[in-house]
Amino acid sequence: MSETDRPLEGLRVIEMGQLLAGPFTGTILAYFGAEVIKVEPPGGDPVRGWRLLRNGTSLWYRSLGRNKKSVTLDLKSERGRELAGKLIETADVVVENFRPGMMEKWGLGPEQVKEKNPGLVYARISGYGQTGPYATKPGYASVTEGFGGFRYINGEPGQAPIRANISMGDTLSAIHAALGIALALIQRAKPGCGTGQVVDVALYESVFNLMEGIVPEYDGAGVIREPSGTTVTGIVPTNTYRCDDGKFVVIGGNGDSIFRRLMEAAGRSDMAENPAMADNAGRVDHEAEIDEALALWCAAHSSGHIISTLENVQVPVGPIYSVEDMMVDPQYQARGMFEQVEIDGEPLKIPAILPKLDATPGRTDWPGSEIGSHNDEVLKGILALDDAEIEQLRRAGIVR
Predict the structure, then answer these.
(1) pTM over 0.90
(2) What is the rounded CA–CA span in Å between residue 11 and residue 260?
(3) What is the pLDDT of residues 2-20, one digit of tens each?
(4) List of E strands, 84-184
(5) Which residues are catalytic?
(6) Number of folded domains in the chain?
(7) Sequence-separated (6 or more) residues with CB below 8 Å from residue 257
């Protein structure tokens, strides 16, 4: 095995669609060695212009577009769709996140391309999935996080649900899509198989997959999980507390022996030895009392003191980190969580992509490239177009 080998080396992925869920799926696959050809409209993926820019391209896109070959094709044109179809014929995987029915409208749906490429794994990401009465509804992450159940439980009781300041539903869907693609490729590789299949990922279902015991608790006991602020319903103590330096710490002291060590460290041996708090059920009954004691203890000390004290007695505790904190933390550094690339000679750190593999790890080969920077390589090398044909496509605005 070469030290350059990665699990997906030799696989070709055509990434179609834009913004987040489909492109992050492509990022994961490219990081682990797949040749990902990103088909963009002539104006490029909108994320290229989102948030903070450097030299006309968003810093975010340099991470999201890493290791991908950028090809511009106007899919609104018949010739653009024809060339996309030719690319799909050469691929192992297609990733698309258009509204259901759009690829079929363009003649590029899974049933339409299966005859020429029966081994194709076709991953589809949409708000509500490819079937059902809501399939054609637009489904951004913000909406599907609510529909999938996350927003309902996230926030303070009696207040408006709170969203995380990231597009969580998109990222979760991308991880689910990458998992589904891996499973489909494993199935395709089995003796006597060789055929691909459709991987149907819905944003709301990816969020729903996080809901732990919420469904059986409702069906079996009629209990609806409600928002609980910084706590977790039915598990005590696990909460966030402010210290006297203004910083917050998270304490997870919900194991029986851990709770005893926690309360001893907090100077509350009376609670540590109280039989009524010896197990989780009892602690749930005394949640307000326990949280008040811990809040008062933390408020009287610095976050560093609380963390070191609890770490010394093996109680799970940690800080609430900003990205600035992450960048200087030795654990992040030791685990290689940041990779440095260069943009026009200037360094830029981007996050590593997980999971970590010890024998065939992923890596960043290059940051997100300029729009259409691989047009000639792909159009000539894969589709065998000559210079005159490519120039004709440029004049027609089909490629950039």
Answers:
(1) yes
(2) 53
(3) 556 899 999 999 999 888 9
(4) 93-96, 121-126
(5) 170
(6) 2
(7) none
